[in-house]
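It is worth pausing here to work through a concrete case rather than discussing structure prediction in the abstract. The textbook approach is simple: state the sequence, then state the predicted structure, then interpret. We follow exactly that order.
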Amino acid sequence: MKKAFLAVAISFALAGGIQAGDDHDKGHDSDHFEFQPGTLVLTRSVYVGTPSLLVPGVTNLPPGCVAGTVNVPLVAGGTTPVKVACVTPTNDASFPNVFLNAAADPNFGITSPIFLDNLTTDGHRIGTLPIPTDQIVTSFSSKSELALHLSTDGKSVTFAGYRGGPGFPTAANIFDVSNGNTPGVIDPTNPAVGQYYRSVGEVDAHGHLMVTDSNAYSGDNGRGAIKGDSLYDMVGNDNSGNRSKSQVTTIIPGVELIKPTGDGDHDGDDAIGQIKIIRNAKSGEVFRGVSLAPQDSRGDDVSDWSW
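Step two, the predicted structure:
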């Protein structure tokens, strides 16, 4: 199987009391993995798809898409019709032509595993920490979500990714996740009907992983997160529904839901954090910043967890 390698994001020196690690490639087990002091950390992903994942002219994209017309409410009252269209791929899932399908499917992407490489300052690889694909994944080939940030206390690094909501698996080789809805914010005009949290992965110096789920950025990417003062500050943009540019200003906007997972309640009544909105004056693109408290997949509040 032909695999593609993509190294992304920012590399930097980890700081703060990191002990020298064991330089074994089998040290991928986080129980034994440690980032070495004075070194660099680099995020990357590897495309692991196979040709049979897509059949040109047959496979429905985005997965689960149902074509039709949706009536959505207007700010001034009443509704306006918005068309939802589905497509089929032009290419199978062989690398690199799999990504030519983006011309037919504007939501196109495929989930892939995340790796954190520990490098010397002159670029030699010391070891690699693979992030379990049943915990959090990224989306190939859009790599904005793997920007890597050192926490303000220097004890951990964070990155943004995706985790499946109820009934949706967290795994590699799932299509159109990065433009899908989040479980708590469903856009009926979005043809990418999969429900995936925009999650924050946090890794400490010993390779321990914690994942916090969020309903922010439904329909698009969460681009990055940094931990400071026991909170994650996230940035991202949305949304990828089928509304036109002119409709965006007249249709009632969706709710930005910023709530950690774990308690099964995503109604937004007790959403936490402050939403900060920045608009690009030239392109009109909106970037939204949010803050949320770290919370692991068991629902335990770990804002003050000692790494």
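Step three, interpretation. The first strand starts at residue 4 and ends at 13. The two ends are 38 Å apart (CA to CA).
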